[in-house]
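Review box. Two proteins, two foldings.
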Amino acid sequence: MKKRNLLATLLIVTMLFAFVGCGNNNGNIADDGNTQTTENSTNTESSEAEETTTLTTQTTDDDSVSGNDSKTLVVYFSHSGNTRQIAENIQEKLDADIFEIKTVKEYSSDYNTVVDEAQEELNDNARPELSTTLDNIEQYETIIIGYPIWWGDMPMAVYTFLDTYDLSGKTIAPFCTHGGSGLSGTDDNIREEEKDATVLDGMAISDSAIDSSDGDVEEWLQECGISADNK
C-alpha cells in the first residue's frame, strides 16, 4: 500500500512539473511573438518616418527651383517652344535659375493670327501685362534673356519685362531664335532700354538649327565669360 501511495505521489509530482514546464514554454513563445511584433511595428514606423523626411526634402528642393541662391537667371519668352528649348539648355549647363515671361492675354496658337497680333502690338508700342512675376530680381548679377524675333524686334512682352524690373548694374546676355533675320539689332535695343546695365553681344540661333545648337551655346557662354562658377 505504501509503495502504491509512493508511486502515486511521484506520478502526481511528475505531472505537475510537466505542466509547469509547458506553461513556461508557451509564455516564452508568446513574449517572443509580442517582442517581434513590437520590433516590426517600430521598424515600420521608423521606415515611414524616414520616407516622409525624404519626401519632404524632395518637395522643398522642387519648390526652390527658381530660388537656389544662383547669381545667374535665365529669362525667356517663347511661343513655339524653340526659345524655351535653348533657355532650358542654358539653364542646365549653368545650373542657373529660370523664369518664363508669360502674358495675361495668351497669344493665338494659329500662326497667321499670332503674326497679326504681334504686328499690332509692335505698331502700338504695346506693353502687354505679364502673368508671371519675380520677387527676387535683386539677387541676380547676370540676366540671360531669350526671345524669338517677331517683325524684326523682340516680342513686346519682353519690353514689358525690361520696363518692370530694375536691371541697373547687372550684366545682360541676350539670345534669340529666328527664321532668318538674326538678332535684328535687338541687343542694341536692350542697351537703349537698360542704359545702366552691361549688355553683352547676343547670340542668334536659326529655328532650323535648334536641335544642333549645343556647340554654339557652349561657345557663346564662354565668349560671354558665363559659367556655372558664376553661381
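Next protein.
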Amino acid sequence: MEARARARQIRVSARKTRIVADLVRGQSVEKAIEILRFSNKAVARQIEKTVTSAMHNLAGQFEHPVEPSEMGIKEIFVDEGRTMYRIRPRAQGRAFRIRKRSSSITVVVEHRGEIKESK
C-alpha cells in the first residue's frame, strides 16, 4: 500500500529543495524525519511536514497502528511552482526583473513491513 502528500507553492526554489529531497530519498520514514529535523536548510521543515502528512495518510488506511520504521519513502520529487516577477529600478530609467521562485513537493510513502537499515 502507498499514500501520497503534496505541498505546493513553497517559497524556496526547486533547485535548493531538490538538494534536501535527495538526502531522504529511499530512506525509512523514521530515519528521514530524523535527517530532516537536524538539517540546517530552511526547506527541510517543509519537507518534514510533507513526509509526516504522507505517513499519516498511509497510517489511516490500516485498522491497526503502523510504526514509522515500517514505512519507507518510495518516491520524493520536486517540481517548479509559480514564479512571481518583481521589478528592480536601475540607473537611467531601466528596470531589471527579479524572479521569486517557488516549488512543489510530492512524497509517496509505502508500507514495507519491518525494514532492515543498511549501515
